[in-house]
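Two records follow; treat each independently.
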Amino acid sequence: MLTIRNSRQKYLGVSLRNPNDYLAKSGPLTRRLLLANARMSGYVVNIPQAALSVRVEVALAHMEFFLRQRGIRENESALSR
């Protein structure tokens, strides 16, 4: 997981365990957009600050807490990068 700042908006970049599986389930237009996101940010899934009800940093802290509680190490995590 990583916060990314692009222009004036922050994004939460989420690394997936199987990004190709996720892309395969997407339609052609969505797949192109997701691949463009991946080229620009390094992440297939990017959640903009505007889509969250809390600040990006708070969401990131909650995700990291969730992973630690389950004993998932950073390099094994589906959400880490």
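The next record belongs to a different protein.
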Amino acid sequence: MALAPLFVLLLATVAMAAPAPQSSPSSDASQQGKCVHGSPTKTENYDIMYQQVKPPSSDGNNNFIVDPAWLKRHSTVGSSIQMSMGNPFISYGEFKCQYSCGGIPGCVSYAGYQSGIPYHFHMAHRISADPGIGTVVGSHKKFECYFFDSLIESKNLVPAPDAENNVMTHAYNKLCDDK
């Protein structure tokens, strides 16, 4: 019987010496608002390893932007990269922006923007003096990604005041590493 109190004392010592259970890094990160639990976004050609943020219901308006006040408060250093491309390449731009966000310290979300910029391209022509020859007039798209240090919520997406210029394509939040 003298062994029973000794055994209880030994078990208590082992229990106190064992490390406290640690929460996983992904749950710590999500509790701090640095990632979301969800699924990657699949586009027609690319998998984006961030979860897409859906705009609030729009009453027919499909053109949104990130709320300018929120954008100003949460933009990260190196907050924009620009690419020139046409409409079919939006998913490629958004796909590439996930890698930029991953490389910017503190970046946990990003939004893609597209704007149409009219352009004139003049080609030199050796024979004709007519300046109109070789002029290409058209529409060129500018694509930008803006990076943020806070997760984007649907309420942070507001109707665009100018649907023709600088409209958000999609917004994305970083996924937690649930491994």
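Discussion point: The helical segments are 3-17, 25-31, 68-74, 90-103. How would you locate this feature using only the token line?
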